[in-house]
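Lab meeting prep.
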Amino acid sequence: MKYIISIAVITLFSIFQVLSQDRGYNLVSEERLSPEKRIDVHRINSGILNGQREDLSIHDGYFFQGRRGKLSKEQALEFFESEIVKSHETRRIVMKSFLDNGFLLIESIRQFWDGSSWVNSAKSLHTYDGNNNQTLALHQFWDGTEWTDYSMETFAYDEDYNRTEWLYQSLVESIWQNIWKRTYTYDGNNNQTSLSYQAWDVTYWRNVWQNKYAYDENSNQTEWIHQYGAGTIWLNDWKQEYTYDENNNITERLRKYWYVSNWLNEWRDKYTYHESNIIIALNQYWDGEYWVNSWHWQYTYDENILMESLWRIWSASNWVNVNKYIYSYDENNNMIGSLRQDWDGFEWINKAVHAYIRDDNNNIIEEFYQESDGTNWWNVWKDTFVFDLNNNQIEWIHQNGIGLLWVNDRKHNYSYEDNNIIELLSHDWDGSTWVLDYKITDIYSPVTAVDESSVYSNSYKLSNNYPNPFNPTTTIIFQIPKLSFVTLKVYDVLGREAAILINEEKSAGSYELTWYAEKFPSGVYFYRLQANDFTQVRKMILLK
């Protein structure tokens, strides 16, 4: 077996912090979470930062090492809260699972371990229409003797299977009462044009907040207006305007805020490119008369491969170094790590290293993170992975660093059937041995067959990804009118294959999937759908 040891990047916290202030949302800290939960939380934070409609339900669930488990928003939040505070003496039994790889979640039961047996806690029942779109999620709790309804989510869709409404209700004294709803609208290209959130106020829907989106002829987003509710009306809050060059590369993002009756400048980001690669990302703020430099990122490439990113701030009419990341790659140009260095005023000082070891199949079998005090490297955490002959992950061990030592913390073992996870068994380390903690059992069932002569009979279709630009995730939707062998691949600007998202036979229907581009450098990418004789290519921009 071949081991490739290199250095990998930690989250660019400064950009993350700026973006989180931009959106005005509270983000979950990822720094000290175990890697599985850190990945999960990072997905959600990234979705929030990229304006991905803030949904954590059927289309934005949580993940077990790349295996998507679809949950309602309430279930997802419950999972994250319980996992992050280590209240994880629980298991979730999935009676039937989800749509992404051809399966639907029909029922899910959560149980807690009381020290001697598993005790029922909560259950969700899921209903779908003939096109496999979820229309109902009914939530129940165990009252000690039977399952009792307590909340319900209902969903509506348009003819293109875009969600148009998400309604949440609660059962109060045997009556279903409205709590909140989200309403979605789209243009003729299936670009989302608005998302509104309203709360039920006894007798009417009270406006809380709303986002409105505009696009150019290439479906690039040109405007994002955020409004807040005042009773039954909407009032402007802030907006962002986007400008693109002839290659559809974003060149400027301008932030404005609403004051009295006018939009006033607040800040802007300006992007400079070389051969479709971003080389400068400049942030400036408006002082009321002029644009004033604030900070910038400078990117260095070697044959379109990102080698270094340098962050500077503007101080006393000069650019001052803050930190930089130096990236390394394997022979296939996969980014496998980076070294972070901080500027102390005189020289670059090593600060953090994030390293990977890969096997011959490019699976990461070891990952660790260390920090430097300027003299020595100290262990922080390490993950070890084991894979079967089908490259399914069958074991994950997390260890925490104590000085130069690694100490066991948690272990997961996975079992598979037809390459689907059917059991996750979790253990905690008690200081001398692994102790059973919780398990998740999954049972799968195929999706309902779709009538090929119905709504899918019109044409093949590849929609624009959203959001675009994105960092680090984006959603791609496509539609096929009949049973087809489908390939969906991502290519970089040089035409090199970057990722294979789908390469299998698919029934007629509309499909949605997410590309996770954490390990890829900023730049322009193309995604290509091929189904039978149909081929279509669209462009997207990864902007880190």
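Slide two material, second protein:
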Amino acid sequence: MLQYILSQVAPGIGLSLANASEKAWMVQQINKAAKELYEGRDLVNVEREQLFALEGDDQQITMPYYVEQIRGVKRHNTRERLNLTDMRPRYKTQGWAESLLTWREKWKSPLKNPITTEAPVTLSIQDVEASAFTVIVTGSSPHSARITEAVTFAAGETEKVTTNPFSDITGFLNLTHHTYDVVMEDAEGVELSVLPNVADRAQYILLQVMDGALVTMEQPYLIEVLYKTAFLFMRNDYDEFVCPGYDDAIAWQTIGNCQAKHKPDEARLAFEKVRQILKGIDNDRSQSKDKTISFEGDGTNYPFGYPSARRFGLSAAPHIGLFPGADRP
């Protein structure tokens, strides 16, 4: 929780939470440290899985904004694993139609639906904000390779229309903190993108899930996706880091970053604490994964542990798997 991390960082670097500007600076440094940890490795509990329903004629899809990277894909009904490639293998030979069991990850886009008509875009929020905030829209038109427009919602405003027409959007970014997500729609009312209030930018993974040369699927189908959840900024006192259990590591990482220039020895100690915390979390996770539980021993810790058959004068039974064939690879 951000409040706890702040309570650890403030005395560690000699700043006060009662000072608004100092607290704001610490929040900025905490998010920087948290992102360093997030990007440095796949943290424990950073992965999520979700079912997605696809239509039979879907050729390209976009993942929701909270999907940072895809780790695995399977068909829900058949449990078949789908291969995931980037765009290059398609061009290694003379070209081919992609297998039904292959997805191509193309790129990350701020749009989940393409713009079909060059026109100004409409931005809206669900309800009024207490104070003004600004978002940035960057894109292009037939007459301008790049257009950047800052759109400011004044307190009480819920809808804005860009001054410039856009034929493509390449960036949709947050500049200031606000409460509600910002929805972008085209001139026909089609939802193009959603800018989460806790993200620095709108971003969607674009995937080709079916080759146009192949026949389409006859029915809608379900896909299981394992993914790395996106990093979300902590701004309010009760905001949580995307992976629970890392508050102390974030606090020490922040302290180390802040002391690295003027107190390098103390910074090294802080970074060593981070290393120890991460190692402890990794070791704790591994304790419950792919372990064989032994039913042997003298049973002295019974009833707090598993009893030994021999303690009660019985013969130890042969090992039997929970399911038929469970012991076979």
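Talking points for slide two:
DSSP finds four helices and 14 strands in the chain.
Residues 264-286 form the longest helix (23 residues).
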